[in-house]
Each structure stands twice: as C-alpha cells, then as structure tokens.
Amino acid sequence: MKNQCCVETIWEFDIRHIYCFPLFLAAIPAGFPSPADDYIDRKLDLNELLIRHPAATFFVRVAGDSMVGAGIHSGDILVVDRALPAEHNRVVIAAVNGELTVKRLSKQNGKLYLLPENDGFEPIEVTNEMQFEIWGVVAHVVHSL
What we know:
The chain is mainly beta. Helix content is 3%, strand content 45%. It has one helix spanning 46-50, and strands at 6-12, 20-24, 40-45, 57-63, 77-81, 91-96, 99-108, 111-115, 124-126, 132-142. Strand 8 and strand 9 (124-126) form a beta hairpin.
C-alpha cells in the first residue's frame, strides 16, 4: 500500500484529563462581520464534544495524502471510535495485510472496497486472500489551519 494515507501514531484516550474552555453563546458568521456578544454561554468540554464512547476511542496521526478530499491531511489527528458501526460510506481505520490505513468504506455489487479521496490513488478491493480488519470509524478530524 505504497503512498496511501496511513496511520503514523496511535494514542489511547485518557479520561483522567478534563479540559473545559469558554463557549460563546453567539455563533460566528463566516460571511460579513457582526457585533460580538460579550458573554459566555457555558464551558465547553472537548471530551464531551469529541468523545462519545471513551472506552472505545483512540487517536491516530495520519501520514500521507490519499484522503485530502475528505479533509484529512498528513499530520492530522483522527478521533476514532470503535463503538460506531463500520457502514457503507464511513471513513474507517483498517488493517490490510498488517498495515493500517484510513479510507472510505464502500460496499458495491457485493464487494467491499476501501476508497481513497484523492484521484492520484487507486481503490483497494478487499478480497478473501487479504488479512483485513476494521479498527474503528473516524468520528472527527483535528488539524491546524
């Protein structure tokens, strides 16, 4: 699986750390500026926002650019949830012949595929001859601008 989008680093979710940040009540428009409201609605816990199933969640760092069309870039951190069902059209972390990769899961005409989201890469058809296992479903992407 050369030049594919693969997993570079894996982290387990550590529930011991809770970080809460201010959440402003007003939404920020992406168009024309508007007057800002000067109050905070509540504290936002990023664990609450990003983690639905703590015991089934892990994080991975991406290496490669086969998923840029899905907004996943090399160096991004993915929040992966093993409790979510690996359904058609979901982005998953899969082990293929011992190598981890991130791809969109596709079921077409009775066959299973791992689809890249970059035209420079070929789909991977999952066959019975392959060692194949889905590790989890990508729930969120964290990257810097």
